[in-house]
# Entry
Amino acid sequence: MQIIGVDPGLSGGIAVLTGGGALVNIFDMPTVVLVKGKKKKNVYDLASIEKVFSSSIEKVDQVCMEKMQTMPPGFRAQASFGLGYCQGLFEGLLVAKRIRYELVIPKTWQKHFGITGAKGDKKVQSYMVATKLFPKAELSGPRGGKKDGRSDALLIAEWCRRRLANENQS
# Structure
C-alpha cells in the first residue's frame, strides 16, 4: 500500500509513503521549460506526471492533494488560473487511472501538525516538521535552499496516511 501526497503548483512537490510511514520517493513537481520566441516559461511536464501514477498504479491506495483556493486580492489572475489548472490536471489523471483521491484544504493538514500563522512563516514550519518526521528526506536544494513543495507534499501524505490508519482501526 502506498499513499501519495501532492502539493500542486509549479514549485510544488509529490511524496510517496508506504502504509507504514516509510518514505518511498519525494520529488519536485515535474516541469519543463517552454521557449516561445525570447521568452522562457515553466510548464507542467504532463508525461512525467502521468508516469508517476502509471508506475505505481497497483500499489497506490490513496492520493491526497492540497485543494486550491481562490487567491486573495493582490495576486495575479494568471497565478490563480495556473493553480486551478494543476488541480484539474491531477483530478482528471486520477479519475482516468481510477485512483482514489481526496482534496484537503491547507488549514486541515497544517493544523494536524501544529502549523499556524501565529508561529510565523508556515513554509518554514512545514520544513521543520517534515525534517523531524523524515530526517532522511531530501528537503533542501543543492545550495541549501528549502524545497517547501517537497515538505508540504510529504506532510500531506503523512496526514493522509495517519487519517487512513485511524479509519482502519475504527
About this structure: The chain has a mean pLDDT of 86.
